[in-house]
Design a protein that fits this description.
mainly alpha
Length: 126
């Protein structure tokens, strides 16, 4: 083969690599990253949904556990709602650690408050 033919072959191969092969590899890598991110986000959301279910149980447990104390404290015009919420938040934090997700105090605090408010509204209608 002549040097001219070798140089032509090399230029064609470089053209193929830069216009076809490299962009194809980049697209494939980006798609793989997107799939992994979606799977990770789906797993994270599933963990959050599991913790929300557990939170319902934690709230019910706290209501049951502090029922007698709450009755005593209410006679003095006070409530032990903060103690109950703290108990629930501690259990939620533990569940977050167990599931490997970051505990967001504001998010879970708002979630607990919303669930307690909803429960009160439902119970008031009965």
């Amino acid at each position: 083969m002549a040097i001219k033919d070798i140089l032509t072959l090399i230029s064609v191969l470089l053209g193929f690599v830069t216009t076809t092969l490299i962009p194809t590899i980049i697209v494939m890598v980006n798609r793989i990253k997107a799939v992994k991110a979606a799977r990770t986000e789906a797993e994270r959301q599933a963990a959050i949904d599991d913790i929300k279910t557990l939170a319902q149980d934690f709230i019910a447990e706290a209501e049951s556990l502090y029922k007698d104390i709450d009755a005593i404290v209410k006679k003095e015009g006070k409530t032990c709602g903060a103690v109950k919420k703290d108990s629930v938040m501690t259990k939620i934090q533990d569940a977050c650690l167990g599931k490997g997700i970051v505990f967001d105090k504001e998010y879970w605090g708002a979630y607990v408050d919303k669930q307690v408010t909803l429960t009160r509204q439902v119970n008031a209608k009965q």
